[in-house]
Amino acid sequence: MGAAHDLLAARCPSRDVLNRVGARWVPTVLNALDAGPMRFTELKKAVEGVTAKALTETLRALEYDGIIDRVETPSVTPPRVDYSLTPLGRSLLEALNPVREWAERHVGDIAEARRRYELNSQAEAH
Amino acid sequence: MGAAHDLLAARCPSRDVLNRVGARWVPTVLNALDAGPMRFTELKKAVEGVTAKALTETLRALEYDGIIDRVETPSVTPPRVDYSLTPLGRSLLEALNPVREWAERHVGDIAEARRRYELNSQAEAH
DNA sequence: CCGGATCCAAGACGATACTG
DNA sequence: CAGTATCGTCTTGGATCCGG
User: Phi-psi region for residue B36, left (φ > 0), alpha (ψ -120 to 50) or beta?
Assistant: First the structure.
């Protein structure tokens, strides 16, 4: 190992994917859709705190990359739009599993590191 | 499977980690440090396009979370500061491997999805 | 050499009002 | 219901100058 890491460099797919998947509302939206297809308003309720605008932008971006699918059922009053993960999106979620596990396992370590950092800052700024 | 995904929800470690790791310069910095410890200016050269300010902020954030280590060698003119991955940071990089592999494998699929999206947009806006 | 301080531009995001 | 339009704010990051 070691050589393959070059692909994480400046202009590479991994960086784009990480930036996209790390965007404000993306993780929560993906998680919500993992439970199954959802309509816009359902999604808005599931992703608490998001505004319609931010949600729309998030969904458009994910649709643009082929991560989610948007199906509009053309029936007047009321309109119906369903969002769901594509196979591509599903495979992405699987690739994200180790990150999720890492986060769960090390949430304590990070909190501890932050406490240490605070203490050191205080000590130096006496 | 299915139940464990709940941890990717609104207020959870995974989301924080994803947001942090998805920040603008983080992936490239981590990749650079994977090759070994580096001084500030080396890092600045390795991460092309970054400004001193953005790099400093990125490094502080990673140090704060215990992902990287900052060692200041107290010698006047010139100062010397070395950055390196902590064991925690190294384990994070490993967890990121599947994402990197996913990105490499599906970069073509994403490009194709984007082309399809453009075409559909054109077709509708005739 | 390693940044901190300051100013500024662009984009992300929220609040609100409105529409097919 | 599923957005769009508009506005204002807040954050990110670039540019530049300065200091230990």
Answer: left
Q: Which tens digit of pLDDT belongs to each residue from A64-78?
A: 999 999 999 987 788
Return contacts of B35-40, CB within 8 angstroms, 24+ apart. B35/A5, B36/B84, B37/B82, B37/B83, B37/B84, B38/B82, B38/B83, B38/B84, B39/B80, B39/B81, B39/B82, B39/B83, B40/B81, B40/B83
Over residues B30-39, the pLDDT tens digits come to: 999 999 999 9
Section B104-110 average pLDDT: 94
Residue in this structure with the two tokens 């400093």, named with its chain if needed: B56
CA distance B40 to B32: 12
Distance from C-alpha of A99 to C-alpha of B118, rounded to nearest angstrom:
32
Give the type of residue at B66: G
Q: What is the pTM of this model?
A: 0.89
B113 CA to chain A: closest CA distance, Å?
A: 5
**Interface contact A99-B97, CB threshold 8 A:** no
DSSP state of A79: -
| Residue to test with chain B: of A12, A45, A99, most B Cβ within 10 A | A99
Our measurement of CA A53 to C1' D7, in angstroms, reads 13
A72 CA to D2 C1' distance (Å): 10
Tokens representing B76 are 């006047």
